[in-house]
Amino acid sequence: MAEKAPKVRRKKTTLGSYPFAAVVFSISVALFIIGLFGLIVMHATRLSEVIKEHIEIQIYLQRNIAAEDQVKIGQMLAITNYADAKPGSPGITFVSRDVAAKKFIEETGEDFITFLGENPLRDAYVLHVKPELSDAAHMQEIKAKLEQFPGVFEVEYVESLVNEVNNNISKIGMILICFAAVLLFTVVILIHNAIRMALFSQRFLIRSMQLVGAEPWFIISPFVSRAAWQGLLSGTIASLLLTMLIQYANSAIPELKFLQSAELIVMLLMCIIVAGCLISFLSAWWAVSRYLKLSLDELH
Which long-range contacts (CB under 8 A, 24 or more apart) does 215-223 make? Predict the structure, then answer.
């Protein structure tokens, strides 16, 4: 009795179906990379702002200046709108010569007053400059104006620090912008190629549907819908991974919390999810539309 030939089970191919896990993994990795870079830019931007917020100008007063003249100078500084005023801090601090001497002695351990026989320091105002005015041009302008105040002996700030900070921030900003553009382009290409390679196995099914008279949108819609869901899932996975990374980094380096904004982080994570969905949708649209235009010979 002849043996029965084994049945060959044919895999049913459904329109719009293609490898799911591999595509989601590829898109998730790409989105995680761009999100990680976004976090780096966010922290670097905030760090530059913190550095600028700590730039100060010292306004030294003339010796033996009357108390009412000291008050007038403080009032004049307040109306200049140079100070980085915040709740609980006007941005302007008066430091008397006695307080300055005491602080210097505590820090250095040297009693220079006993050695010199007098206190050579001067009363001064310390002005915390607004971050947007901390560039070299504004600082020079502020210094020139403050030196014209009656009763002011000298105005000083660490000019080399200001120039160094602004030059480094400008250079780092340009590098980050260029790198961000290259990285974004690379991520888009990676996601696009992942979708396109996944759709490669569906090219003959697409042609078959086209030959039986199916409308282009009827053919395209299952692919773009699936791609959009994959992008949404991938963006969500990448956002979860970034959230876990942020929590781990904050536990390892608590100071990072001072450079973070919950609102900006939420916006970044939402952008990653939307970007994953949008890029996947457009990539699937482009790939299927391309296969619809190819001849049968070009499909092989």
Answer: 216/289, 216/292, 219/15, 219/288, 219/292, 220/284, 220/285, 220/288, 220/289, 220/292, 221/16, 222/15, 222/16, 223/15, 223/16, 223/199, 223/284, 223/285, 223/287, 223/288
pLDDT digits (tens, 9 = 90+) for 101-114: 778 777 777 766 66
- Which sign, positive or negative, has the C-alpha torsion 108, 113, 119, 120? negative
User: What sign does the dihedral 182-240-268-223 (CA atoms) show?
Assistant: positive
- For residue 166, give the nearest of 43, 49, 37, 41 by alpha carbon: 49
Rounded to whole angstroms, the Cα distance separating 79 from 104 reads: 30
Q: Which two tokens stand for residue 263?
A: 């609102």
The whole-model pTM stands at: 0.68
Give the span between the Cα atoms of 243 and 16, in whole angstroms: 32
pLDDT digits (tens, 9 = 90+) for 69-96: 888 888 888 888 888 877 666 788 888 8
Contact by Cβ (8 Å): 161, 55: yes
Query: Could you tell me if 195 and 291 are in contact, meaning their C-beta atoms sit under 8 angstroms apart?
Result: no
Question: What is the three-state SS of 70-118?
Answer: HHHHHHHHHHCCCECCECCECCEEEECHHHHHHHHHHHHCCCHHHHHCC
**What does the DSSP 8-state code read for residue 294?**
S
Q: How far is CA 131 from CA 54, 83, 260, in A?
A: 8, 9, 18
Q: How many angstroms separate the Cα of 299 from the Cα of each of 12, 73, 74, 267? A: 21, 81, 79, 42
